[in-house]
Amino acid sequence: MAASGSKPISFYSKFYIGICWVVAACGGLMFGYDIGISGGVTAMDDFLIKFFPAVYEKKKRAKEDNYCKFDNQLVQLFTSSLYISALVSSFLASKVCSKYGRKRTIFCSSIFCLLGVGVTASAHHLPQLIVGRILLGVGVGFGNEAIPLYLSELAPISIRGGVNIMFQLFVTIGILIANLVNWGCSHVHPFGWRLALGVGGFPAVILFLGSFIIPETPTSLIEREKVEKGQKTLQKIRRTEDVDVEFQQIVNACEVAGQVEGSWSEVFSRQNHPPLIIGMLIQVFQQFTGINAIMFYAPVLFQTVGFGSNGALLSSVCTGCINVICTLIANFSVDKFGRRALLLESCIQMFITQTIIGGILYVHLTPTVGLNKHNGLAVVVLVLIFVAGFAWSWGPLGWLIPSETFPLEARTVGFAFAVSTNMLFTFVIAQSFLSMLCHMRSFIFFFFAAWVLIMGLFVLFFVPETKNIPI
User: What pLDDT score does 304 carry?
Assistant: First the structure.
């Protein structure tokens, strides 16, 4: 029921705010598609023949090392160039986010992604392909900076975690769609890879059109001295006129933020050391679970352990389905069980699965002999269990926790450091995984398992619970 003295909640109001959440979260769809599409495209022979003929020849050689058939720095650069671009652009995005608002930053994200899709899908040379990925990276940097903040600032405190996780949910949906598109386009010769890259324009179009209808967040409006408009927007998104307490909290936070010298210096002040360290380390740990190594190169990885090209793409579709379902579980569980419980449980789950996968590969996968059917199936099942653990914890919470722990005066810059750290280590993993797989072989899974153990101890001793604490 509406509070006393407030207007009745209309169906339109409920529908509108839901649409706003979905539209903003489409930035995650765009990001997820970019994550998922690169691994499938690099597994397509037509793509390799056009851009990486040496890798294609190496892939086809008889008795090629199972662990090293895709080890090529340029192939990895195709995937990783997006993330180094996103790293740099996230700091520019933080300034745009503070000065012009979250909504306009989201709009810029859609423009850069549309440009990037156009350039990559029409590429005829490798430099053009890389330029397109860099443009996509700028769009991803702007989107990943603005959208988690937008969702956290727009959501009521009681469901803030679930609303924020919509971003990661749409990331997983984007990965799943990319896997399905890769599987379908792998049968279209010789331009299936162009179709696969071009489909990435659809979520960017949704975000572009949606940026004209979503409201700016009350926090951003009040922070930029549009106080009356901020109050009206808060009443609209809360579907009641009784918002005095929350409105005053935001006004007080903006007044405090206005008294400091600047968010760049404030983010390094002593009181902000804990959220800065936690926000950045969570991003490091998120990448060193090994999840993006699996998501980027799932088709390649499954080929390595004995699946054919089509079987590998289909297996990665199964991975994407599990990713979506378990992220959806996080939407409903994070505000009930809290952040710490989900993080700690998943560490146990991921540590066990990574260790067993490493053991199976160490015993049964040699450089020239692949896994048999039963061991290959076991690896796929263990990967799915691993992905499930990540999807209901470190995946969505890696974006949620930094978005809700910084005070307003340091929020956009602090979150930019978190985003850029994520992009830096995503770049490191994307650029190095295939080489690590070649040189470390099965021990790469023990390497990631060791990191999972470290991050579990970090959460246990250093990460506070943020459930039901005002932003």
Answer: 62
Give the pLDDT of residue 303.
67
pLDDT band at 170 (very low <50, low <70, confident <90, very high): very high
How far apart (Å, rounded) are the C-alpha atoms in residues 225 and 227? Answer: 5
Phi/psi for 307 (5° steps) reads -85, 150
Prediction pTM value: 0.79
Work out the pLDDT band at 365, boundaries 50, 70, 90. confident
One-letter amino acid identity for 435? S
**Are residues 255 and 410 in contact, defined by beta-carbon separation less than 8 angstroms?**
no
**Terminal alpha carbon distance of the chain:** 24
Q: How many residues does the chain have?
A: 471
Q: pLDDT of 370-382, one tens digit each?
A: 677 788 788 888 8
DSSP per-residue letters across 102-139: HHHHHHHHHHHHHHHHHHHHT--SHHHHHHHHHHHHHH
- Whether 30 and 143 have beta carbons less than 8 Å apart is answered as yes
Contact between 169 and 23 (Cβ < 8 Å): no
The band of 66, judged by pLDDT with boundaries at 50, 70 and 90, is low
CATH number of the domain that 163 lies in? 1.20.1250.20
List all residues 6 or more positions away from 217 whose beta carbon is below 8 Å from its beta carbon.
101, 102, 103, 149, 150, 153, 154, 233
Going from the C-alpha of 247 to that of each of 18, 62, 159, 221, the distances in angstroms are 21, 68, 18, 12
Answer yes or no: is 125 within a domain: yes
**Which H or E element spans position 355?**
helix 339-364
Count how many domains the chain has: 1
**Domain with 323 in it:** 18-462
C-alpha to C-alpha distance for 105 and 89, rounded to whole angstroms: 11
Residue with the two structure tokens 């600032």: 153
Residue 274 falls inside a structural domain: yes
Tokens 């990460």 belong to 463
* 194-226 pLDDT, tens digit each: 999 999 999 999 999 999 999 999 999 999 999
Residues 309-333: pLDDT tens digits? 666 667 777 888 898 999 999 988 9
Structural domain includes residue 74: yes
Residue 5 lies in a domain: no
Instruction: Write out the two tokens for 423.
Output: 């992009």
441 Rama class: left (phi>0) / alpha (psi -120 to 50) / beta? left
